[in-house]
Specification:
Peptidase_S1_PA; 576 residues; PDZ domain-containing protein; alpha+beta; 5 domains
Length: 576
C-alpha cells in the first residue's frame, strides 16, 4: 500500500508517540526477563530517555536519528550479540513504520509479512507481536481520550488512496484487495462511532433547539433564556406506573415549614393530575382529578425529585407541589402589570428537560362562553409542553402561567400571586361564586362599543351574557368599586375572600353579601342590587337553562341544572 510523504509531526503527537514507545519497551523488557534475557540497565535506559528529550527540544531530524543510533548502541552493549542484532533490526523496522504512519489520515493496516521479512521471526511470533501491537495502540487511544486535559489529535476520516480524478473532479480510487476493503470498512465504522460520541458533547450538539422566534427578537430571546434557566421545570405524572401527563411548572416560593431552605413550592397547572376531561365547557365542572398521582420534577441539570401535592384549585385549574430544590435557587421576579399588545415569551421544558421558547403578543380578547373569566390571551400559541410554564416579559419577569384551555390562554400574575398568598395564610383558595357569564365592553369590536356608548352612555363594564341578572344588562361596579375587565373582577372577588377569612378566621364554606351596580339596558336606568354569594374553593358551575317538550300539547317546563345531561332537548338547537 503506497504511503504519502511524511509530514512534519506536531509536538503533541511526538509526545504521545514517545509515551507509546516507552510503554512498548517496558512490556518488551518484561517479556525478556521472563525468557531470562538480560535487558538494558536502568542507568542506560535513563540516559537514553534524557538524551532523547534534549534532542527533541532543539535538535533537527538528522540529530535525532544520530541520537537514536547512539542510544541503541549503548543499550545493545548490555545484550548478547545475537539478541542485540535482532533488537536493532526490530527497532529500525518499527521506527520506519511509525514515522510513515504518523502522517497518515487513514488508520494504518498492519501486515505481518513486513515484520517477518525484516525481523526474521517465525509466523507464530509475528502473529503474537502484531496482536500485541494492536492492543497497545487501542490502549494508547483510550488513554488519550480519558485524559481530557491532554491535547488530542484531530479526528481524521479514513479513505482509500485515490489515483487521479475524472472529468467531473471526482476522485478515482485504485483497485484494492478484499482485506484492504474490510480494513477500510472497519476503520470507517470506528471513525463514525467516535464522531458520534464527540458530537454528543454539549458544545458540539446542535440537534436541540427551542421553538424559533422572530429574528428581530433574538437579542431578547438570549436574555430571557439566561433568566429562565432556573424558572421553568418539567413535571410528569403517572398512576400505578402508567404515564398520565407531562407539563411544565416554575418555582414560586419556599416552604416556610423548612428552615433549611431546601424545599420549594412549584406552581403548575392542575392539568398535570387531571385523569379525565369529560367536557370542553369549563363551567360544567366535569373534569376528574387524581390527587394521589405520582409526580416527578425534572430539573434543567437532568436531576429529578419527587413532588408532593400541597393543594389544587379546580376553578383556576392550578396546583402547588412541594419538592426538594437547591438552596441556591433564587426567587423569580413577578410582574403583575401585563398590558394588551405587550410582547411576551412562553417558556417550558419537554420530556428531556430541554428549554422551549415561543413568542406571542397579548391580545384584546374576551373569553368565549366555555371559558373562565380569569384568562388573558396571546397571539402566539404555547407549545403543549409549555402548559403550566411561566410567561415572561423581555426583562425575564413572570407575567402569567400558560393554561391548557384555549391556545395562547394564560392566567395573569396578579391573580396567581393573590391565590398563592391566600393559600399561604389559609391553606386554601376559596372564591365567591357569582354564577354569571360575562364579557368586558373594552374588548368588544370598536363599532359595537361605540354603539353602546352612543345609545347607553357607558363605555366600561361587564355585559351579562347568561344566567342570573337579565341578559344584556351591564355590571358597572362591585361594592362601589368600578369594574372595567374580567381580571379586575377576579381580583376583587379574591380580595373579598381574604377579607372574609381574615375577619372570621373560618375555613369552612360560607356566604358573603355583595352589592352590584347594574345598568338596565332595556330601560336605560341604573340600579343597585344585593346578592349573597357562596364562598368555596370548588369550581364555579354555570349551566344553561333547557326546556323539555311534551309530545302531545307542546307544554314545556324549565329543567333544573342537575338534569341537563340526562337527554333533554334544547329548543334553540331544534329551531336551528
Amino acid at each position: 500500500m503506497l504511503l504519502p510523504p511524511v509530514e512534519e509531526v506536531s509536538g503533541s503527537r511526538r509526545t504521545r508517540s514517545s509515551a507509546r514507545r516507552r510503554r512498548r519497551r517496558q512490556r518488551q523488557q518484561q517479556q525478556r526477563s521472563e525468557c531470562q534475557e538480560p535487558g538494558p540497565t536502568p542507568s542506560v535506559r535513563r540516559r537514553g530517555v534524557q538524551e532523547r528529550k534534549r534532542n527533541r527540544a532543539g535538535g533537527s531530524c538528522d540529530d535525532e536519528k544520530a541520537c537514536r543510533l547512539k542510544i541503541r548502541t549503548c543499550e545493545d552493549a548490555a545484550l548478547p550479540p545475537d539478541a542485540a542484532t535482532a533488537r536493532a533490526q526490530e527497532e529500525e523496522a518499527k521506527e520506519e513504520l511509525e514515522a510513515a504512519s504518523s502522517a497518515l489520515c487513514e488508520p494504518r493496516i498492519y501486515q505481518e509479512v513486513v515484520y517477518k521479512e525484516v525481523i526474521g521471526y517465525d509466523s507464530s511470533a509475528v502473529e503474537v507481536y502484531s496482536e500485541t501491537f494492536r492492543k497497545e495502540e487501542d490502549q494508547a487511544n483510550e488513554e488519550e481520550d480519558a485524559v481530557s486535559s491532554a491535547p488530542s489529535s484531530p479526528l481524521c476520516e479514513p479513505r482509500i488512496l485515490q489515483d487521479g480524478h475524472d472529468s467531473n473532479g471526482v476522485g478515482i480510487c485504485k483497485p484494492i484487495d478484499l482485506e484492504t476493503f474490510r480494513a477500510y470498512r472497519q476503520a470507517k465504522a470506528k471513525f463514525e462511532e467516535k464522531l458520534a460520541r464527540k458530537m454528543k458533547l454539549p458544545t458540539l450538539d446542535d440537534s436541540i433547539s427551542s421553538c424559533p422566534v422572530d429574528v428581530e427578537l433574538r437579542h431578547a430571546q438570549q436574555s430571557v433564556a439566561k433568566a429562565a434557566r432556573n424558572l421553568a421545570f418539567a413535571l410528569s405524572s403517572s398512576i400505578g406506573g402508567k404515564p398520565l401527563t407531562q407539563c411544565s411548572g416554575f418555582f414560586i416560593g419556599w416552604d416556610e415549614s423548612d428552615e433549611s431552605h431546601e424545599t420549594g413550592i412549584i406552581l403548575t397547572s392542575a392539568h398535570l393530575i387531571c385523569s379525565q376531561q369529560l367536557s370542553l365547557d369549563s363551567w360544567l365542572c366535569k373534569d376528574e382529578y387524581a390527587p394521589d398521582a405520582e409526580v416527578t420534577v425534572h430539573f434543567p441539570d437532568r436531576t429529578t425529585a419527587k413532588g408532593k401535592l400541597c393543594y389544587y384549585q379546580k376553578h383556576y385549574n392550578i396546583a402547588l407541589f412541594r419538592t426538594k430544590v437547591k438552596p441556591s435557587l433564587q426567587l423569580p421576579f413577578f410582574n403583575d402589570n401585563v398590558n394588551c399588545g405587550q410582547e411576551v415569551f412562553m417558556l417550558g421544558r419537554d420530556e428531556n428537560s430541554i428549554l422551549k421558547i415561543n413568542h406571542g403578543q397579548v391580545q384584546f380578547q374576551n373569553p368565549c362562553t366555555f371559558e373562565r373569566h380569569h384568562f388573558m390571551y396571546t397571539y402566539g400559541a404555547a407549545l403543549e409542553c409549555c402548559i403550566g410554564g411561566p410567561i415572561v416579559d423581555f426583562n425575564g419577569g413572570i407575567v402569567g402561567m400558560s393554561t391548557p384551555d384555549t391556545e395562547g390562554s394564560f392566567i395573569p400574575t396578579s391573580i396567581i400571586l393573590r391565590c398563592f398568598h391566600l393559600w399561604r395564610k389559609h391553606e386554601r383558595i376559596p372564591r365567591p361564586h357569582l354564577q354569571l357569564k360575562l364579557c368586558a365592553i373594552q374588548y368588544l369590536d370598536p363599532a359595537q362599543s361605540e354603539r353602546i356608548l352612543l345609545e347607553c352612555g357607558i363605555d366600561d363594564g361587564l355585559i351579562v351574557q347568561e344566567n342570573g341578572i337579565r341578559v344584556g344588562d351591564v355590571i358597572e361596579s362591585l361594592d362601589g368599586n368600578c369594574i372595567t375587565s374580567l381580571v379586575e373582577l377576579e381580583i376583587m372577588l379574591l380580595h373579598l375572600s381574604q377579607q372574609h377569612l381574615d375577619r372570621r378566621n373560618n375555613n369552612d364554606d360560607s356566604e358573603i353579601d355583595v352589592e352590584l351596580g347594574i345598568f338596565r339596558t332595556r330601560i336605560r336606568k341604573r340600579r343597585t342590587i344585593k346578592m349573597t354569594l357562596k364562598l368555596t374553593d370548588e369550581g364555579e358551575e354555570v349551566v344553561r337553562g333547557y326546556y323539555t317538550i311534551t309530545a302531545h300539547n307542546a307544554i314545556s317546563s324549565l329543567v333544573p341544572p342537575d338534569k341537563v345531561d340526562q337527554g333533554y332537548v334544547d329548543i334553540g338547537a331544534c329551531s336551528a
